[in-house]
Structures are given as C-alpha cells and as structure tokens.
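Reply to dn_fold:

You asked what the input looked like. This is it:
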Amino acid sequence: MFSKLINIVFLLLVAIIILGLIYPNSVRAAIANNIWSVRFIKGAYAQGGVDPRAFSPPATHKHAGMLLANQALKLDDVGLALDYMAPLRNSADSLVRHTIANLHFLQGEVAPAVEIWKSLGEWHTLEQAYRQLEGDEQILALQAAYELFPERYARPLVSALLTKANQLLEEDQIDQAILVYQRVLSINPGQQEALAAMENLADSDE
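and this is what came back:
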C-alpha cells in the first residue's frame, strides 16, 4: 500500500514537471497564486482580520479581489470591497457575480443586486432580501423571485401588491392603484380583494 502511494506521488510529480516544461508560465502563475492565497488566508484569518491594502496579489490571481473584498467587509468598508470587485464586474463566474450583488445590496442599491440574483436563479437569496425590504423595493425582489419560482412566491407578491394598491387608493392616486390591482389580477385572476376594489372603482365612475 505504501509503495503504491509513493508511485502515485511520483507520477504526480512527473506530470507537474512535464506541464511545467510545456506550460511554464501557467505552472509558475498557479504556484504564485497558491502561495499568495495561503499567505493571505494565514494572515487574514489567524489574526482575525487584517487590512487588505497590506496585500498585493499576483496579477494572474482571478479570485484575489474576492478575498480582499471579503476582508474589507470585515472592516465594514463596503466601498473598499466594491473597489476590489470592480475589475471583476464583467466576470461570468457565478461566485464573483453573487458577491458583487451582495455588495450592491449592502450599499442600498437594490435593483442591480436583484438583477444579478435573478440572472443566477437565486430565488432563495431574493427571498432573504425581500424580507428585509419594504415598499417598491420589496415588490421588486418579490417579482424577481416570482418569475423564478411562481408557485412559491405568487401569494407573497400578491399580498405586497395589494398593500401598495390600497395605499395608493387611500392617497387618491386612482389610476396608479388600478394598474397595481390589474397586476394582482394578472397573477391571480380570482383574487377577491382586487376584484372588489376594481368593481367599486368602476361603480364610482358611473
């Protein structure tokens, strides 16, 4: 058993050497990235948090910005975290995009956060978000969650829309209220409260 393990390790070393000869830059970059990551993690987590500006990652490290951004968040510096993530804004990496969405949300930028979470299919994250929101922003997150998972979010979305429509009605914003009631009925055509409101509004116009 021990001899087999030695043989496996030997073959891995040979493979690494061969790759190093064929793709020397790639192997060197990978080694440099790994060394930096280990040093960063040791410093950041062993000490319970350090200033991320004290670290200079290799240019080839794709996720260094995320590591630095997370460390900046530990210091409650959302702006610095966004700065670290800025070069990664066009990344197709789902983890990177999720992190950027979280940072938007922390800065109160709900719309771009919701857009990213929806594109990633993260209905569960949208649910967590809408429970922390109110008014139009809550409806925005609920609408995105509903489009991903209508069976789960139709009821809470209708409830939020009814609250908005009733508030608009109380404020005498009739046209806007009608639009929201119509939106409710497009989701649930038999919704009694919306139907009754629309009938009352129709009678009042006669």
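Residues 24-46 form the longest helix (23 residues).
Hope that clears it up.
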